[in-house]
């Protein structure tokens, strides 16, 4: 089998940049192979994809050294039109990739650009509509599609151009569980039915473990490991050192191996195999079940009280919230989960008065939000939005942190003290005179949290705090939040990542079509595998294993591993 | 992110008209507004014809009326400027107190004519872009010799408008959540805090532009000199009738004006 992509000693740095972003990268991908590129944020994954797609250094200017070959031809010698026919590129944000007023126009756009005949376009459109399941919906507006469907459409539009290599940059990172499942199903079909070469930056690790032929791990611009998923995830030291997320089943084996007299050499990466190996390790399943440890937590007084909240954006639009009632108590972490469009962001915008209920009421520390200003409520409830770039407008970290503190009349010494404390909580050690715009995405995110923390609100609400953060940095954010709760604060978390939620949440509320359909202790909700599956969520591997071992209400990998470790033969 | 510009999907008779007819409508309304710039009583009929067009298109005519409401300051200034220039011609309707300007019938006709010279093309433009797909407009203009890339950039700019408004709303919410009083009743504070909105919005738009350039590259934009238009324009009898009506109405106004027709003289009974 010939090679689709060959990268030899590739170096790249952006115009005006002093450091090389890619440093001596070499690897080869065979035709029909699925290679997944992993690594922490800022390690150069996306830049590598830009080079492979012929964008850098042509349109994304920079200095390049080394060689990239596509099907044995040097990419530097190929015309952009040729590269466009060879390589398809899909980005992570589905919103930006949907541009046209109808599904068919979206698919046709690329084909028109490369100058195909009308007959050829017609043939390809019909094929791709059939393949991607959009047949019969050609004239629907893409703007009415869910984020997952938009991403499917973006992939369909690129597929229609019939590339030989499909490059996908975190195609599921901004999607909910249902959207992720549909996109990954389509990618599986592209791999199995078309046999296309796939190069993917992807963090949905369970999928990677099962479907990738090869995993390339990058760190700081260099390839630090390359091999099959089994080889990569089986290497605990590498996984821990780089901070990539292993499959939960592998993580359980990392912990078990710490205590087991006989180490499991070949660490399983798939759930089915993992369970079999674990079964063979323990004395009996019943013994494991007896190891269950339950922790009962108690929380303080109610800080936010939402009662029968109804909301819609205008009279002509449907209700977004339909009779939502929920409390947030002091000292708890409440996670709100739900699919896209369930009303999660709309709900939390009620917590600081950005939105006022049309019916029902929201009380924050006893104040009715309909009668209080957001400016006042922001001192009690701090809301951190998904995108930190929508926040910073001053030229230094100090200014960014102190502006809200000055407004509430604090003295300079108090401001300094709070800024120092908040930056310590989020573990951000940068000079205070540094521009916030020069920080990495993860650092910006932590600074955004710090600006709110410094106000010392009773409740901090985070809308999708893990979006755009790698596993290691997400864990850093979780640690910060835990510190804040330990100091008496409360946290409301809106997120899709059940594993990260399981690490920090005390309670979980599930929102569906503007209604709370379930609320309970995190252990209770996240361990209810059947209910979660029925409602479109992908349950945690740790919870599935725990259930199989008769451990109800156990959801964390470490807890599952601990219970199993105690019963090892 | 939409490249649909301001297009609003409906199944109206105006939507069904060929893009060429609607572009002709815009050009004729523009030309008629130029021809009637000295005669507000004629220019207002052009405006009414455009409002009827919007109503037939099923587009809320509130938008068109809002143009007038929002431009009330501009309207007053226009009338005052032209009234002051023509206060010694024609019959005095009223003498404006404080500024002591005599508003004459001539000043009023010219002032309103000049006002509609600006408002009519804006309304006609809205009529075209809200009822015609950008794809069709581009196709017509490319056939007329306009460069595709330039037209696409124009579409892009229009597409960015709704995204910009969304982004402004988001940033306002973010800053309000930090306790920054972007909606303060104090105008000085509002001006000071407007920086907290515009800096992040500009940064977000730059980020959009970056992502867009990548999406466009990935879809082969500009890689081939030859571009196909999969959907073709189809001229029908309805279009011929519509064009004839437009030519009759606006062409009539233009010709009448070129021949020296004037409401002022008509009112005075002068030939």
Care to describe what's here?
- Chain A has 569 residues and is an alpha/beta fold.
- Chain A contains 24 helices and 20 strands.
- In chain A, the strands form four sheets. In chain A, strands 6-7-8-3-9-10 form a six-stranded mixed β-sheet, with helices on both faces. Chain A has a six-stranded mixed β-sheet with strand order 16-17-18-13-19-20.
- In chain A, a hairpin with a 2-residue loop joins strand 4 and strand 5 (73-74).
- The longest helix of chain A is centred in the N-terminal third of the chain and has 18 residues, at 177-194.
- Chain B is mainly alpha-helical.
- Chain B is 69% helix and 3% strand.
- Chain B contains eleven helices and two strands.
- A two-stranded antiparallel sheet of chain B has the order 1-2.
- The radius of gyration of chain B is 23 Å and the shape is flat.
- The N and C termini of chain B lie far apart (57 Å).
- The mean pLDDT of chain B is 87.
- At the A-B interface, helix 2, strand 6, helix 3, helix 4 and helix 5 of A face helix 8 and helix 9 of B.
For the CA atoms, what is the radius of gyration of chain A? 25 Å
If strands are numbered along the chain, what order do they take across the biggest sheet of chain B? 1-2
Largest β sheet strand count, sense and barrel closure of chain A = 6 strands, mixed
Over all CA atoms, what is the radius of gyration of chain B? 23 Å
Class inferred from helices and paired strands of chain A: alpha/beta
Low-confidence stretches of chain A: none
Large-scale geometry of chain B: flat
Distance between the termini of chain B: 57 Å
The total count of strands of chain A amounts to: 20
Taking the sheet with the most strands of chain B, its summary is: 2 strands, antiparallel
What is the count of β-strands of chain B? Answer: 2
